[in-house]
Amino acid sequence: MTRASQAQVAASRAAGASLTEKILRKAADHHRAGRQRDAERQYRRILESRPDHPEAHYKLGILANEGGRTDLAVPHLAAALKADPDQPRYWLSLATALLGSGRVPDARAVLQRFTERGFSDPQTAATKTAIVANLFSDAHRHYSEDRLAEAEALIDIIVLLDSGHAEAIHIAGNIAVRTHRFELAADLINIAISLDEGVAGYHANLGNVFCKQERYEDAGACLQHSLTLDPTNAIAHSNLGVVYHKLGYLPAAIASIERAIELDPAYPRAYSNLAVVLKEVGRLDEAVTCYDAALRLDPTFAMAHSNRLFAKMYAAGISPAEQLADAKLFGSLIADPLRRNRPFRNDRDPERRLRIGVVSADFREHAVNYFFEPALRRLDRAALELVAFSNNANDDAATERLRLAFDAWHDIAGLEDEAAADLIEAEAIDILVDLSGHTSGNRLLVLARKPAPIQVGWIGYPGTTGMAAMDYRFTDLYAEPPGRGDDLSVEALWRLPGVASCYQSNPDSPDVAAEAPHSANGYVTFGCFNRFTKVSDDALAAWAEILARVPDARLLLEIANIDAPEMRADVEARLTRLGLPLDRVILEPRTPQNRYVLYNRVDIGLDPFPYNGGTTSLDSLWMGVPFVALEGAHFVARMGHSILNHAGLAALSGRTREDYVALACRLADDHAWRDGIRAGLRARFAASPLMDNQRLADDVRDAWRAMWRLWVERAGEAPSR
Fold it and tell me: Which of 172, 290, 536, 613 has the fewest CB neighbours in a 10 Å radius?
């Protein structure tokens, strides 16, 4: 090319550039004046001659974004960035458009590359700050609306742009808590504290994480520090009370939660937390009153409904009919409206291998699992495929054992109720078994959605859930014989031919004492090692009468926190009021170390009423100690009667209070009868249905098959009540 030609090309380009600049200025004038169509027409004129012109693409993208047409904005902004990646506003505008169109991962990828380029001019910094502010507003809104995944994705971008955004990191920690990722939650909240250590809420929430991890000492330290920063935080006072309760500092727990209520009388969870502690110390009427207060403030507070139901089971003055009414209220108000109304697509072959789902918060070292795991390992796997849905907060060695015992395992602790129900339905479960009922960690609101054709309650809870979505509850012929209990249960009672659960002995339990305690002591020792909450005034009055009729006898009670002066004073005052001679009552602390060993100091066990012992009564027989029971009118008042009958000791179950007292006195006076029962009791107990896990597994298998056949015959209709 000649010099003249080169000059002509250069001149032409200059002219073109000049014309492009004029068009850009004209388009900008139209844009500022609100004439978007005219502005767009001018920008498109530029692209006709220069298809890769970055500024024209950028401006067209901005126009489209302003008009809500993000589908058009994104390609123009992407083209601008491709043509000139050295312009920070192109990066940020493209990311903003991608966010507006819901393409959060794509926006994050763009911003990741943007940060790697290290743009640092003031205008870019100001734009970043504005984007972060908008993102945080959206993330906070999503979080408050329980759209946790969306909130978390936006917070991820916020932290990418501003690694020192303490509040965003704190919210990310709270999301991790709500999705049961506790180690991550602790790490995130600790980072937020390092960025702004003067925020009381950060320390309080870290304490809550430690509480979830059962690190109660650490939790208490965090909550106490939070309250030094903000002594008026009712939630922190209430949560500190929960920690004190877990650590066994019951008077401090009550005081802390009462302070929370004083600060915020409209905080329902504080009343519920206080009720838990009051129940623990035996102040049942006050506990029920607190649950009532919580539910007046929030009638949909599901946990308070569940805890109130459990508390009323312990109270002697509350009838089973009232408990049923409360359960039905929970069902009609909270659970039943959640039920899904759509047909199940399960294969209706009545004889095929059944898919059994099991939901529990106690797939760990827990009393419920002691009863469940031995039967689980003996279930007929040719007939049954077993799928676990675990709601554990903290797994342990038992959890790892159980994983291997199931055909499939799903952790649902971090799933919302709807998502957990979707998972169960997607797994095509035929029969869903609930091991929790209204106990801690339950997922009743998952079962309320009816994700499986048949739903059955077993082991964990001794009463009705009150939910229409639950079809059956396993029971036995002594606890609830035909005609008894059906009118107190929303679920149909399925009476197994043997026991409804079996005892598993602890390999570390000591041997039965070679001699009965009375041989060395010269007097008979009665004992009760149940939670003192179960011990009603009526039971204590009966025990006072027994001690009066057996004047040299002693009574050994195991009571949680009895070494605390306030607790001992309350207990002794109650015992005195009910006629028990304190010089003949031995009070021992309820500790893991005392399980089993105290039985070798007892000749005769006394079953509490109206809420009988369960595991404790079975421990008693395993340790060679007979006990007397009062045959009550409903399930929890008939557990002792059921255990004794299955153990071949029906003679120790009295029909009336007078029978109960007379049996205890006769057993104390008749050494030959008592020693005859004691001799070889462990071996006889081990050979009884109460420890025949294979029979239980076969009975449960047959029951599930019968339920399934009935469902198939009824073409998927619910079983009759």
Answer: 536
